[in-house]
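Translate sequence into structure tokens.
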Amino acid sequence: MTFDPVLPPAVLAAVATVLLVLRLLSLRPAAAAGGRALLRWTGMTAALVLLVAAAARPGATPTAQAASASASRAGANVFFVVDRSEDSAIDDFGGKPRMAAIRDDIDALIDAHPGARFAVISFATRPGIDWPLSGDAWSLRPVVEALNPFPGAAADQVNAGAAATVLRYQVISAGQQYPGADNLVYYFGSGAPQSTVPQGEFDIDGIEGGDVFGYGADGAGDQRLRDIADQLGVPFVARSPGQAVPTGTQTSDSAVVASPAGERRDEFYWLLTLAASALLLVELALSVRDLRRARATAREVLT
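Result follows.
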């Protein structure tokens, strides 16, 4: 059994502690009421425990992989930084929107990094994490397919470096969770050529490889993208329709080679969330019933 938590372990432990304290505070009135009240308290507590356990993302890997001394560091931490401003909606990439090309390139890079962990950080005027660092590439693909430009993200307000701080902390966290694994950054954007706002800078240590991909057909934002590439210490690649995605910029074999025993990690979080959902649905149904009874009683008293 291995764990790949969606939050840093210290944060997850703090959340679990707070929830435990809150549940203990609510135990006394439930115990005093006894019977069904205590049973419902137990069900809700069990649901919260299951959700916290699911957030720890338990899973299993093949025995040989778990036993291998090198398996713990096999596979890179791959960060996709995606421009979701209205620039990515421009239809000048071989007759299709730039965002469609970005999605295709991300899919190709997922295939090119078997055994890796992936994160998706998007930005326009502000950054956001669309997918936390995870080795569950199968579940990531629908998220990638759903990537589209943010509505109302005006081109003159785009900050091409908006994701710098979020990326820095994600890289730091990855280094703590997976010491020895390479950190690769792939940036996808147009360089915010129409922006009139100050641009952020990527001041990040611990990046071993990656690329900055540019999708502007006119090349108006290429210089800004080259600057970002210099800040990250990776090459700049001007993308063209039909061009194969370069994947050979990594500096370590662990960036592209899966563990000897295989690429798969069996995830168990969905079983835990399924059980928690069942308990929460029962509690919701009981709460609705209690509310209806209370309203009915109130009407009888008033009449």
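Note: The chain has two domains: 2-61+266-302, 73-255.
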